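Loading example: each entry is read as two labelled lines plus one structure line.
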Amino acid sequence: MTAGDFLTIDLPAVLAVVMAAVSCGLLGNFLVLRRQALIGDAISHIALPGIVVGFLVTGTIATLPLMLGAMGAAVIAVLLIEFIRRVGRLEAGAAMGVVFTAMFATGIVLLEQTGSSNVHIDTEHALYGNLESILWLGLTEWADLLAWKTYATMPRQLATLISMTGATAVLIAVFFKELKVTTFDPGLSASLGLPVRTISTILIVLVAVAAVAAFEAVGSILVIAMFICPAATARMLTDKLDRQLWLSASTAAAAGVGGYFFAAFGPQLWGNENALSAAGMIAVVAGLLQVTAMVVGPRYGALTRAIKNRNRRFISDS
Amino acid sequence: MNTVEVLEVITLQAGYNTAVVLVGVIALGVGGGVIGVFSLLRKRALISDAISHATLPGIAIAFMLSVALGGSGRNLALLMAGAALTGAMGIFAVQWICRHTRLAEDTAIGTVLSVFFGIGIVLLSHIQTMQAAGQAGLNHFLLGSTALLTSDEALLISISSAVAIVCSIAFMKEFGSVAFDEGFAKAQGWRVARIDLIMMLLILAIVTIGLKTVGLILIIALVIIPPAAARFWTNRLGRMVALSGAFGGLAGWAGGSISALLPDMPAGAMIVLAATSIFIVSLLCAPRTGVVAWSVRQLGLQLTLAETRGLLAMASGNTPPDPMARRMVRWRGYIDSNGQLTASGTLAATEADRQRQLWEAYRKRNPEADTSFYPLGGCRIEEVLSPDVVSELESRNR
């Protein structure tokens, strides 16, 4: 691998993965704490009909109409879930299951019936993303990174993801207190006069935007994993929300970098030239990190606690 | 496509293969509907999502294994066995996370779903680089396809669905008790965790059976949507199980027929959409809980309220306070064209005023009483309180 290849192909892909992972990972903290972890899963299924409709209406595969379609579908889905939950008195999980499977099935039928599956929005794409299409053509040498004109050729997906991640981080930093109180104590926040429902709606909208932005680059499977695993890992390690946010962002970034390079170069270790799926591998690495935290986490790890309990019993027995 | 063709397909007369496939998806629909009732009532509908995604690595491993052993990797029974194996691992993983860590169940489900699916995708990307026949067929496990179902496979699906249905009916009492009243089930000496496990294994069975036809992404609809639709019609467990099974079977039959008749209609998606239609009809039309029934009830309540408002105002010598109240008392014939109370109107107004006084007396005596009982709610005091309380309030008012 030459430096040029690395800069043109791998660097933008890794950056895109890290940006997608960090923005989803940060938002995931609030989903995990609010017991809405599966919203990310539902939204990534729901985006499919939205993307297909966006394509059918505009006839292009430009990002904006597709993203608007996906956003529209996500908003409709959230409203439908809420409606079914209220009227049908179903639990949130069942309402979500009804809505997202129905919308996903609609998306598949539309895809098959209109022949849209021949163009680039096939289902495989939606699952694995399209990392290899992210090329930074103006970047061939390290010195290019210092030149302004290099940034004019920055791949569009990467630019979208960087601004998305920046916006997420800024919003969380600015509204940290509000998010914290409404997440941990909705009753208290209502009595403090905080708009609890508005904040949770904004959070869901942010989740939808982040999911859709990450989608076309990294695929839905990675989005679902990143909404949950880094936040769950961080939750096993700390009780403080600010620390949890930092930990989840670093876990997400580490899983992104580790998974990407292991998928690209890992197979060469046992003499196989073909790369594995980066999106899948990143989810696996994120899962491994979470398992580590769940088993040997310093305070809440299952093994750590078991040992502590045994020692305590030993002391009380003797 | 003509009417004869349609009739042939939907009555299972269109050739042996089509009929067997259709019977297979009907059995699958019934099985999913029956088992899904219990996970829905247990408020664990989405655990099926973790189970279905967890089958992907098993499918991939079974494929690689059969290729390594010299087979073509198309053996459905072997692929299903692999799917069941990692699906079961997924169930245990969810249970382990819930029991041994501080993470909530939805996080556990999400973790298992995404990580197992990630493993599956890594393995699939490895399989794509293998020079093996039949690897293209693996993609059908994501979205399903009845077109490629052989009659042997359809038979396998029907028989295993039947077994799953029988098992879940056999455990109906246990599942029902655990879902409705965990404390009671524990008091009976049943191991709740074990009953939950059996329930999840039955869901796994349905998921595994439906992989090839419906695909692992949509299969969970078969265990969620029919029970959710059945929930609108009844509060009784036995009826709900029967109804949900019937809805599932109907969805399988309708979806399977449509996909057999029309080109490019994926069966899994059509079955899900058929189930969704049943759900929407239930949501709208169910007696008592449906949207239409609810709206009619709301409207009736509004009208009663308006009538009472008008009568109370007339009783104290005023005119009805708003147009709706005015229209209501006029429509009921309580006032004449001059705006004066008629004979029946005087009676009704006196009665409305008496109701108001009694309720107010009752609320003064019992300030802690439920405030939703109020004269404006159109609720007669004699229907709510016992006669001796009413006569006591009456004597006090006098």
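The radius of gyration of chain B is 30 Å.
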